[in-house]
């Protein structure tokens, strides 16, 4: 092993900047050293060398050249041995500090650093070396220290007298001799080699392997070691150790803060035995703390820290927390880890880094997890708030809100009139509750899944919502909510819903308010300039359309026309249409719905000002529009002058075993063609009205839901074409429109070639497609999805992350066949997955033209689309 | 056009036996002539010649060589021109008979055939030639005849005097002259050419084209013509015409029967102006008719007919109805069409033909539509019964039954005890009704589709059943059934359900009883010897297993274990299991279910005596087992000593929006693993018990339903394996079993490669797979499926005929991927499609190992599998 000397690397050698050689810590220290950050000199023992040493021992592998390598660090210096795996959280043996002290050189050390300090450093060496190398129980040694502190009547070793420190050191040496059977080694080189070998062997222990493999380390993960000159925070003069942060964790705002402890080593400042000081005066004053901050006691040190922080940010392209030591007034940087930051701070940081020229816009865009943008868009519970959960369910609509419990939409509305915030609590919601949902600040339902009425509407409104909280029980009559632990809440009590985590909490919670300008806006602008795919919003009403515009979308990808019928003023006309006995009666009701729907479309088109609008024709089963309770049925019967039995009978007739798979979507058109004809007419008349005065003409996109056979599309197309010709004849105007289909059954995906011959666009409804591909109702799956994901049956909830292996293959098949049959066919996706970054990336890979999701998720989609474009361009 | 003479073919020329040249009739006549059947001589004008004639006229195309061809038929003979398209039902101009009579040769004809006959033949010529060639309205000519009959005071022209006949002929000639402006043509060759040209041109008329295209003819379908020597049934001596059948239409039993009319032509015997005689004495006597049959008046003629029939059957490989003429005591065969026969007769006929050596077994197997076998297996309403429908629904379970209306299972049971046949009428059925369904003779439900509880159970029981009869209304309190036309039926009134046609009829109906031995049994034996795929039955209970054995199946392909829990004695233990609050309580209930289930399996295995049995673990959502009405809930609460509110709450908790896509199948196992563990133990213990005394050891096949991810299978497999090891430890015995999956979600089909690595068999549940691929609930689709098929949106109901383009592609993908990952994986299908011949053929193409369907459909599957094997072998 004669080449061993060559196999160590100096930290200043550029070769040591490679994490595959030096591990994460080693490579970062080397890079900082290269940047001119004051990193103590040291050598790296790369992965392969440490591996050899683990197998063959330090003597065989390192001799006779190690000492030559160490000579470069300076003679008589104290050394630290630190571990450096490829990823920091894979663990590795604890650092051993102060290597090199012996009985013989102790006096010289004392002369250099002070008597107390030298004694304490020696004791600390025996402590960490004894535990890490000689196998002594660290607690035994600590007990000796605590006994001594107790005897001396002081709280920390700093307060011990020199005499006490000497006795303590003797105690340590004696205990070491007793435990190990030999005196503490008195040769610095022996101390060092044994420390290195122990670290190398410790890495191979089965328990260490298991631990790191649990964190994702591969079986053959290696360890690098760093032998580095000690910067002595225990030293005469202005000496100590601390940690410096360069941003505010919560906001990302630049600003030095942190902790520092004089006469301390390593992470002593964080350990809490003694009280550290703050780094900056401003922070100290803001917190009303007396005494001096480091800035006040040693302004040059903080200035040096500021510059070190800036150097690291520039050189490493991120903001780091820096662990430092001051030895006799001189700064040494011992370590740097990426600065902890909230999701919001992360955006601020990358935008600042771009503006400082430290990273590129592309890097900034790729650095942010799109899902974290949610925190910008909705109020969030302050992470420091103590949570008192009273029920768990599905995180149906993100954001949090506190308010008084109400059990009825009416109560929510009346309290809203008094500007009282409310949380609407229901078993489940139905279309009649919508106005109450508008009035409430948050929503909680006992039943339902991610596509329940409550969840869908709440997401559309941006209303924090938790559904499927099955562990609470409601007594609507008594006006009480009883949670699983037996606690009882009454109407008017204050609770909080956390729609981002799917929890209900007792009481009010402190909130962080949303922020969508500033750095967020800048980042969004870069994303828009980078992405290829268009991002549209799902928006059903003029109000939704306004929200969508506020989010700067490229158009509406899904306007669910049924939402327009749930309005109180319209639902009964809708019901008359459904209950009609003859085609004439049905047409009569439809004639009254026509101007209402046309009016909506006019407003929608005007708001969207020429942007693309895709209107989906009526989709849900008709029974969804009928009243559910006997009281409501009686009311409707009176209004329609019909026997209530007639309404009950009709409702029973329309009832379905599996509404998801029933008489809905295009199937309505095959049996009741008048409905789609009315809708087509409403769209065409609205287009002509708007185009007569608008500058940008509207070319509406009409979408047929739930197709599974090409013939369905041909039938509907012929009828819509006939309506268009009628409207043209009546008005003398020329109509332009596009007709497309929603691909949401597996069969539609398989037959996409047929469909694309008739359709000018295909929009993948991945919610339904996932339900049908898995044979899994999203509303019903909530109950066991958690078990399923926890047991690893599904790697993720397929309703959140597109199932690439199953549903994804259908998208792939469909897009290929569709494009082959009709190269001009426009492809998009309009399920919830359109707001899921991995799914958006998959859409980019398939060459989709657009994604469409809820307005509140469009920022996520915009960033995800930008990332996808960058990654696909880079071939990753 | 000098080659025209060569372009006609003599009927005795073997080239004219090709239907692509001579059409169906021409080719058949030619073949009969070849066989030695006395077919009058004639020439064929093939398709291309007739087409030319249609374009260019007879003179251009036929001259100058036609006469030479006709010379071969003999001079001075009368001719008939008949049309012969490729398929008889594509139509073609009417035959023109007696061509060649002129004023000049009439006396010679009279001398040969008799004065009366000659006059009548001339009149008939003018009638048919005038209408078919000269464009006279046939009715005008007929009116002249009827006027003359009236004047003469007789009923038919046979009774007219020679004088009357002469006057009538003059009237015809005069009318012809008046209408056409020229006298009736007096040159036989002119008559013939005009008749041929008129037929050729008539074929090209747009109305004729439309008519035949509606019957499936291609746009360029051609017409051949036959000019054939007349056999004169209007002739002196023993002359006449008739039709002979050689089997009994209803049973297929051999036996000459038919009609004959003396002094008649063509189909006069069928026209009803005069009363024909029967052919055979036996038939005449059986019907108690006086007079003489043809057999009695001319025994040689019937003997000749018998031989002609046998010759035709041998030569043409089928039994034909023969149209014949006797001219002066000599038999002439004019036409033969395949004998009409009932579905049952068809089987008898092909078996007899094989036994006569007329066809091969393979031909026999291919000749029978497997679906027609249903008529052998269930009582059928006699086709001659006058039907009085009171409601229409879905044909949910074939066969027919009459009985008294009962509205409750209890009433059905109590009347069954008195041996009174009942029809159970319900809105829909639930598991508690099963014993009543056993007791009833037929079942009618207002709601439900082809997979509703009623339909599934009825098919399993072989009970005639109509579901989804939405046009009737029940008043259970009043005990009345009101049908759409307002008629009211009461409990105890007799009605009939026709489960083969999906109809309910008023009153009792005459039935044809099933027959599964005799020819049917012989054919099944041949099918079994021919098919490659195994045919198994879906059988849930020991009783079903016995039925399956009676149908000689190869094993059980699907045993739905849930059916065992619906038994009255067990359902409450099942309910306790479901309502259990803790794992211990649940195990307690399962411990009580274990011996019951084990007992079922013991019985099942013993009945199946070593044949393969595939047991599907629990599949339906748990709420299906809970009581539905408040009364039942109260009862259960009392029994379990629980507050009824608890049961209501639990039932509400378990309720699902889309049970088809909910918490069922393998999903139960992931959240409540104890259930499958109990079932596995019951199977293993039963196997050991049976194997300890049986000769053929049972190797059970355990099937996991509704998988969509390989990890589900791995989880369940590990648990079942653990149970197996436990049982082995406890008993010291060795267990052998196979574990497989049901592929019934599109995702399972796509991921079949993953699944096949863990599963030893994959059984395609095409019912659910079709539902999910289309996004279409079978139970809910009943309402609009008829519209969908009628409007051609779906070519067929995909729940009856496997959708090859969508579901079929998934089967193809899955079978390829499955076999690639595991070449030994056994593939089968266990949906209803397993009893659909086209689907069975598709399974053969994909190389499946077995199909499994309801016991009552296994004969269909056996024959279909045999046909599929033959066709695939032949590369068709």
Task: Describe the 3D structure.
- 2 copies of one chain form a homodimer.
- In chain A, strand 27, helix 30 (710-731) and strand 28 form a beta-alpha-beta unit.
- In chain A, helix 8 packs antiparallel against helix 9 and helix 23 runs parallel beside helix 25 (583-608).
- Chain A is an alpha/beta fold.
- Chain A folds into 4 domains: 9-229, ATP-grasp fold, A domain (Dna Ligase, domain 1, 2-Layer Sandwich), CATH 3.30.1490.20; 240-341, D-amino Acid Aminotransferase, Chain A, domain 1 (2-Layer Sandwich); 379-512, Glucose Oxidase, domain 1; 531-621 and 656-873, TIM Barrel (Alpha-Beta Barrel), CATH 3.20.20.60.
- Mean pLDDT of chain A is 90; it is low at 1-5.
- Chain A is elongated and about 110 Å long.
- Chains A and B meet through helix 28, helix 30, helix 31, helix 33 and helix 34 of A and helix 27, helix 29, helix 30, helix 32 and helix 33 of B.
Largest interface between protein chains, with number of residues from each side: A-B, 52 and 51 residues
Per DSSP, the total helix count of chain A is: 37
Shape of chain A: elongated
**Distance linking N and C termini of chain A:** 41 Å
Low-pLDDT stretches of chain A: 1-5
Report the major sheet of chain A: 8 strands, mixed
Determine the structural class of chain A based on helices, strands and strand pairing. alpha/beta
- Tell me the radius of gyration of chain A: 35 Å
Number of DSSP E strands of chain A: 31
Q: Tell me the number of structural domains of chain A.
A: 4
CATH topology of the largest domain in chain A: TIM Barrel
Strand content of the residues of chain A, in percent? Answer: 15-25%
Assembly category: homodimer
Percent of residues of chain A in helical segments?
A: 40-55%
What is the top-level CATH class of the largest domain in chain A? Alpha Beta
What number is the mean pLDDT of chain A?
Answer: 90
């Amino acid at each position: 092993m004669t080449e061993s000397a060559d196999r160590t690397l100096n930290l200043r050698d550029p070769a040591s900047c490679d994490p595959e050689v030096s591990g994460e810590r080693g490579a970062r220290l080397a890079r900082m050293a290269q940047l001119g950050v004051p990193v103590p000199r040291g050598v790296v023992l790369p992965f392969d060398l440490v591996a050899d040493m683990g197998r063959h021992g330090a003597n065989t592998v390192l001799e006779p050249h190690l000492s030559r390598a160490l000579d470069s660090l300076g003679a008589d210096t104290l050394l630290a041995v630190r571990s450096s795996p490829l990823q920091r959280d894979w663990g590795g043996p604890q650092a051993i500090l102060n290597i090199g002290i012996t009985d013989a050189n102790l006096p010289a050390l004392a002369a250099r650093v002070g008597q107390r300090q030298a004694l304490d450093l020696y004791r600390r060496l025996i402590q960490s070396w004894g535990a890490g190398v000689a196998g002594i129980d660290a607690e035994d040694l600590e007990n000796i220290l605590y006994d001594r502190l107790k005897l001396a009547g002081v709280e920390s070793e700093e307060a011990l007298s020199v005499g006490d420190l000497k006795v303590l050191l003797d105690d340590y040496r004696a205990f070491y001799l007793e435990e190990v059977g030999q005196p503490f080694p008195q040769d610095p080189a022996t101390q060092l080699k044994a420390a290195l070998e122990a670290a190398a062997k410790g890495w191979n222990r089965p328990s260490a392997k298991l631990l790191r493999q649990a964190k994702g380390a591969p079986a053959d993960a290696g360890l690098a070691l760093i032998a580095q000159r000690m910067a002595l925070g225990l030293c005469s003069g202005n000496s100590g150790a601390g940690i410096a942060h360069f941003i505010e964790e919560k906001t990302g705002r630049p600003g030095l803060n942190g902790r520092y402890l004089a006469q301390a080593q390593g992470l002593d400042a964080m350990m809490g035995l003694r009280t550290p000081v703050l780094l900056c005066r401003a922070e100290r004053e803001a917190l009303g703390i007396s005494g001096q901050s480091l800035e006040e006691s040693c302004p040059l040190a903080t200035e040096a820290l500021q510059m070190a922080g800036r150097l690291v940010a520039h050189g490493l392209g991120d903001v780091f927390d820096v662990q430092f030591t001051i030895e006799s007034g001189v700064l040494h940087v011992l370590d740097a880890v990426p600065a902890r930051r909230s999701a919001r701070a992360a955006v601020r940081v990358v935008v600042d880094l771009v503006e400082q020229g430290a990273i590129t816009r592309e890097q900034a865009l790729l650095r942010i997890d799109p899902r974290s943008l949610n925190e910008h868009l909705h109020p969030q519970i302050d992470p420091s708030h103590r949570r008192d959960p009273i029920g768990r369910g599905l995180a149906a609509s993100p954001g949090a809100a506190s308010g008084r419990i109400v059990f009825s939409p009416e109560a929510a509305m009346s309290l809203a009139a008094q500007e009282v915030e409310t949380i609407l609590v229901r078993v489940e919601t139905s279309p009649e509750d919508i106005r109450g949902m508008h009035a409430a600040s948050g929503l909680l339902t006992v039943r339902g899944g991610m596509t329940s009425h409550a969840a869908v509407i709440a997401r559309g409104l941006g209303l924090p919502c938790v559904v499927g909280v099955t562990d609470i029980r409601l007594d609507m009559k008594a006006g009480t909510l009883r949670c699983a632990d037996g606690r009882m809440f009454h109407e008017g009590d204050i609770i909080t819903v956390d729609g981002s985590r799917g929890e209900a909490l007792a009481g009010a919670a402190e909130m962080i308010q949303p922020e969508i300008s500033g750095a967020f806006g800048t980042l969004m602008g870069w994303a828009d300039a980078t992405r290829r795919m268009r991002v549209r919003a799902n928006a059903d009403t003029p109000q939704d359309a306004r929200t969508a515009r506020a989010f700067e979308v490229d158009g509406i990808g899904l306007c669910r026309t049924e939402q327009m019928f749930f309005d109180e003023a319209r639902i009964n006309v809708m019901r008359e249409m459904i209950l009609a006995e003859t085609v004439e009666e049905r047409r009569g009701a439809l004639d009254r719905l026509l101007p209402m729907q046309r009016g909506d479309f006019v407003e929608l088109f005007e708001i969207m000002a020429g942007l693309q609008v895709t209107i989906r024709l009526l989709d849900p089963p008709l029974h969804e529009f009928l009243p559910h309770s006997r009281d409501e049925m009686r009311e409707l019967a009176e209004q329609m002058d019909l026997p209530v039995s007639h309404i009950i009978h009709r409702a029973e007739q329309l009832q379905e075993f599996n509404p998801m798979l029933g008489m809905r979507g295009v199937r309505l058109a095959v049996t009741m063609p008048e409905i789609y004809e009315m809708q087509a007419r409403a769209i065409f008349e609205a287009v002509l009205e708007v185009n007569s005065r608008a500058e940008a003409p509207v070319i509406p996109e009409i979408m047929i839901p739930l197709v599974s056979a090409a013939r369905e599309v041909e039938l509907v197309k012929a009828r819509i074409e006939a309506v268009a010709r009628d409207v043209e004849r009546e008005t003398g105007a020329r109509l332009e429109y596009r007709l497309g289909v929603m691909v949401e059954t597996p069969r539609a995906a398989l037959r996409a070639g047929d469909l694309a011959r008739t359709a000018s666009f295909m929009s993948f409804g991945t919610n339904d497609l996932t339900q049908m591909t898995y044979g899994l109702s999203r509303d019903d799956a909530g109950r066991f999805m958690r078990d399923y994901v926890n047991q690893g049956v599904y790697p993720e909830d397929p309703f959140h992350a597109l199932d690439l292996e199953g549903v994804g293959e259908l998208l792939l098949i469909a897009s290929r066949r569709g494009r082959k049959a009709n190269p001009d066919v426009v492809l998009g996706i309009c399920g919830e997955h359109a707001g899921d970054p991995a799914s958006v990336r998959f859409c980019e890979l398939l060459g989709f033209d657009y994604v469409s999701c809820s307005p509140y998720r469009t920022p996520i989609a915009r960033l995800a689309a930008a990332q996808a474009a960058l990654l696909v361009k880079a071939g990753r």
